[in-house]
Amino acid sequence: MDLSAILSEHGAMLGRIVASYEADPALQQELMQEVSLTLWRALPKYNASGSLKAFVARVAQNRCISHVGKAAAAPRRAELDDEMVADSPHPEESLSREQQRQALLIAVRRLPLPLRQVTTLALEGLSHRDIADALGISENNAMVRFSRAKTLLRDLVAR
Domain-by-domain residue ranges, the chain? Predict the structure, then answer.
């Protein structure tokens, strides 16, 4: 199992998981490197009994949780990007979609950790079973957490 092949296949998912835990772009890059290193170290433990995607997601989630724990004592800061590059012929539509994506990402970051975990994995297309495997919880617990997260997200995004 080659790390570069895994990162090529699942890198976008890892990037989104990292972004759901860290707002600062520079720290996202550092965290992504930490996740990659942790994944490289964890690969010998993968026994192919479950989904590789779920295994990769679990490693990323655990590393991100450790990162958040270390960063909790430090004051939060995030750079605001004032530049908006429009690739589509309709800048208003692009802006609207980007604002919705940002609102969702901010709302996901505000979720309690157990709900954030299932949400980021569900947004990556993992099934309830794979989410349960990735987080070491029951499938029913994964479904209940995701249901609660969706309700809370609706409220957070509506604000």
Answer: 3-75+91-158
Closest among 158, 145, 159, 134 to 56, alpha carbons compared: 134
**DSSP letter assigned to residue 136:** T
CATH class of 3-75+91-158: mainly alpha
Q: What is the pLDDT of residues 83-141, one digit of tens each?
A: 655 455 577 777 888 888 888 888 899 999 999 999 999 989 999 999 999 999 999 99
Tokens of 41: 């170290």
Angle between helices 3-21 and 25-42 (to 10 degrees): 140
Query: What letter does residue 72 receive in the DSSP assignment?
Result: T
**What are 81's two structure tokens?**
């990007």
pTM for the whole structure: 0.61
